[in-house]
């Protein structure tokens, strides 16, 4: 007998390609005990963190590729980014006006 599962999935879509991030998560029984629920939520938390790490790695690679492409073609269509300022304001809404 197979164990039923669902997929935790995130998709990255851009003009030059797409990327899927997926983890199979065992579905709890239809009438789960407290322990079943705790295990399920723990797995969701674990796989969500793993997926976030995978996406961060992927996006960092994409940014590096874009930067190298811009450097090799001599085009600088993206404005200069103040990395220190971006790091300082990470996760915060900043009024750019």
What can you see in these coordinates?
It is a single chain. The chain is 47% helix and 21% strand. It is an alpha+beta fold and 97 residues long. It has one domain. It has a two-stranded antiparallel sheet with strand order 1-2. β1 and β2 form a beta hairpin. It is elongated and about 60 Å long. The mean pLDDT is 83.
Tell the overall outline: elongated
The largest sheet is: 2 strands, antiparallel
Report Rg: 20 Å
Number of strands: 2
Helix content: 40-55%
Summarize the structure.
With 97 residues, the protein is α+β, with helices and mostly antiparallel strands. Helix content is 47%, strand content 21%.
Question: What topology emerges from the helices and strands here?
Answer:
Layout: E1 5-14, E2 17-26, H1 34-73, H2 83-88
Antiparallel strand pairs: 1-2
Q: What key attributes describe this structure?
A:
97 residues, alpha+beta, two-stranded antiparallel sheet, EKC/KEOPS complex subunit GON7, telomere, nucleus, EKC/KEOPS_Gon7
């Amino acid at each position: 007998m197979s164990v039923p599962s669902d997929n935790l999935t995130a998709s990255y879509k851009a003009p030059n390609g797409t990327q899927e991030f997926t983890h199979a998560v065992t579905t709890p029984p239809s009438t789960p005990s407290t322990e079943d629920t705790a295990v399920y939520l723990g797995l969701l938390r674990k796989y969500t963190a793993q997926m976030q790490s995978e996406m961060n790695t992927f996006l960092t690679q994409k940014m590096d590729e874009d930067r190298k492409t811009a450097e090799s073609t001599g085009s600088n269509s993206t404005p200069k980014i103040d990395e220190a300022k971006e790091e300082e304001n990470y996760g915060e809404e900043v009024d750019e006006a």
